[in-house]
Amino acid sequence: YLEYIESQLKRFGILRRGKLEQYTGEFGSFYLLQSKYYRGYFARQRELWYPNGKKTLPNGIKITPNILRMLYIEDGSLSLNYRKKRVETVSLFLNDFELNDVEIIRDLISLELGVEKAVLHINPNKPAQYGILMHKREVILKFFNYIGACPDEIMGSFGYKWPIIEGSIIDYNWRNSHGKTKHRT
């Protein structure tokens, strides 16, 4: 996953110094990429997103397929209803944003997906722990068509978040694809 993030940053000319380090501990192997490699860029981003130490949505933010895909990969989930055999909800968690920032994000997503903002429900999990929930099948289809397929580079780690979509059908049981997630428009 860190290699995928690195490839995304390279597209913007953001290069790291050093290398990914692999560590093995009692919980298994993992990689570590310290943010010091990108210190200049990330320091400016931190000032933009956390003025005065509080998470704030920067002015002029835009939603793109790549941004929404990354938000889903990192802070989203797919909920299934096994009894009814269907995808129930797609959730995007926006923890530590103020409600007015979450409303702005919801409105921007609504515009990009071409859906009424009323179908993108804001759900407070706890104070300042908001989520945007999508329940309607047509909205879920538009969402996955907008963000596209799970990137091949991270399919093994995050492919489980993508259902099989064929036309207007969302397969609730994507695991039957023998580890290969399908996404067709």
What are the defining features of this structure?
185 residues, alpha+beta, 4-stranded antiparallel β-sheet, two-stranded antiparallel ribbon, 6 helices, globular, disordered C terminus
Radius of gyration, Cα only, in angstroms? Answer: 18 Å
In this structure, how is the largest beta sheet organized?
4 strands, antiparallel
Number of helices: 6
Strand content: 15-25%
Distance between the termini: 25 Å
Low-confidence stretches: 174-185
Instruction: Please tally the β strands and state the result.
Output: 8
Could you give the order of strands across the largest sheet? 3-4-6-5
Q: Structural class per helix/strand content?
A: alpha+beta
- Rough outline: globular
List SSEs in N-to-C order: HEEHHEEHEEHHEE
Helical content (DSSP H or I, runs of 4+): 25-40%
Arithmetic mean pLDDT: 81
Structure description:
- The protein has 185 residues and is α+β, with helices and mostly antiparallel strands.
- Helices cover 33% and strands 24% of the residues.
- A four-stranded antiparallel sheet has the order 3-4-6-5. A two-stranded antiparallel sheet has the order 1-2. A two-stranded antiparallel ribbon has the order 7-8.
- The two termini are 25 Å apart.
Give a brief rundown of this model.
With 185 residues, the protein is of the alpha+beta class. The protein has six helices and eight strands, in the order αββααββαββααββ.
